[in-house]
Structure formats: C-alpha cells, structure tokens
Amino acid sequence: AMGATNFRGRIKQKGITVINSSIENIPPDADIVVCQSIFFDRVSRKNPKAEIIIIKQFLDDPALDELERRLTPPSKEILTPAMILLGASAGTREEAIGQAGKLLVEGGYVEEVYVEKMQEREKIISTYIGLGIAVPHGTSGSHEHIMHSGISIIQYPGGVDFDGEKAYLVIGIAGTDGKHMDILTSLSTILSDEEILEEVKKTEDKMYIYNLLSKI
Predict the structure, then answer these.
(1) Residue 104 and residue 172 in contact, taking contact as beta carbons nearer than 8 Å
(2) How far apart are CA 73 and CA 64, in angstroms?
(3) What DSSP element (H or E) covers 188?
(4) Residue pLDDT, tens place only, 6-45
(5) What is the residue-averaged pLDDT of the chain?
(6) SS3 for 89-107, per residue?
(7) b/e for 121-158, b at 16 or more Cβ within 10 A?
(8) What average pLDDT does range 68-84 have in this prediction?
(9) Are 172 and 152 in contact (CB under 8 A)?
C-alpha cells in the first residue's frame, strides 16, 4: 500500500490508476503489474496478458524509476506562439475569460471543465491585478483539470471591463504542482517594466511576446 501510494504521487499522467492488491485480487484488465521476483510466476499465471515489472523494493528501485519515465508525459512549453492572440475584442470579461480558457484547452494544457472553473473564480473576486492586466485562473480545487502548466495571452486594444477596470491584456493561467504563484510572480516581474508592458499591449508581433515570456 505504501509503495502504490508513493508511485501514484510520482506519476502525473491523467487516466492512469495505481492500486495495491493481493495477487488473487489483481484486476483482470491490469496493463502493468509491479511485484517482487518471488511472485512472478503466480502473477504471470493470474494475469498472463499484463506486463510484469520486477522490483526488489517498493519505495526506491531502478525499475520503478524507468516505469515513471515511461508513464510521465514529457515536459511541455509553458507558452507557444499559438497561445498568443493579438488585436482581439470581447464584449464582457466572461467572454474574454472564455477566449483565454479556450486557448488553454486547444493547446492541450487543461480539460474543458477548467474554463468553467476560471469563470467561477472570477465570480468570487476579480482577477484584475492592475496596469491593464487580468490573470484569470481556476478555483483552488481545479488543479485536477490541469494537464500541463501553461499560459494564454490575449491582447485587447479596446480593453475589456473587469469589475470597473479596463484590462488590455488577459493572461489565462494554469499551473500544476503549485506552479501558479511562480508563473504569476514571473509575469509580474517582467511586466512591471512600463516600457515592456506598453509594447506588449500594442505590438503586432506575437513573437515579441513569445520571446519575452516563454521562459518564465
């Protein structure tokens, strides 16, 4: 049970279930069974179609390290040019948040339900942070709907009303493993430079924004 709990925490891939089980109760549709060598014959008879991973210890073993590498998705850029939209327009903040969330979904960063959580978060308190910037993100319990940390950036030359304030940049944020605050801090540090911020608000070159913020 301790080994299963530990390994469950090590892998980030959605849709993978990790359980501990006696040999007699291993699910018949199990894809991979992790066990010690003394149980190999019994496991192979019980689950002949399953891949069997042999380990010496459940908490720290090279075979588990290799399995983690196989099951954990490769790292993904936090920002791509496709996640940047320039010269956009939106009649309401809800529409703007929907546009920012849609980019995150299309980029493979979040599940669709995360966009609903972004809208819920905005109803609790405005995500406008000043200087013409809003940073919509999900509620505190929405991390399970995030597949990769990422941001979407939408430029609104005409501005969008966020609870009485005009947002000219709407930056959708999705952060895994507590990454949300790191992303927000990095964005705030870079965009606190007034000249850079004004250029981001008016540029027609999305690569300028990408090169500026892709490494946060």
Answers:
(1) yes
(2) 15
(3) helix 179-191
(4) 898 888 666 788 999 999 999 999 999 999 999 999 999 9
(5) 93
(6) CCCCHHHHHHHHHHHHHHC
(7) bbeeebbbbebbbbbbbbbeebbebbbbbbbbbbbbee
(8) 89
(9) yes
189-202 confidence digits (pLDDT tens): 999 999 999 999 99
Instruction: Report pLDDT for 154.
Output: 98
Picking from 134, 137, 70, 82, the residue whose alpha carbon sits closest to that of residue 108 is: 82
The answer to whether 148 is a known catalytic residue is no
One-letter amino acid identity for 196? I
Which residue out of 137, 145, 148, 180 is catalytically annotated?
137
CA–CA gap between residue 21 and residue 172 (Å, rounded) = 41
Instruction: Determine if the pTM surpasses 0.90.
Output: no
C-beta pairs of 183-189 under 8 Å, 24+ apart in sequence = 183/78, 183/149, 183/151, 183/216, 184/135, 186/216, 187/135, 187/151, 187/213, 187/216, 188/129
Give the per-residue pLDDT at 14.
62
Contact call for residues 190 and 157 (beta carbons, < 8 A): no
The packing angle between helices 194-202 and 206-213, to 10°, is 140
Strand pairing report for 32-36 and 133-134: unpaired
pLDDT, residue 208, reads 97
Six-digit token pair at 98?
């929907």
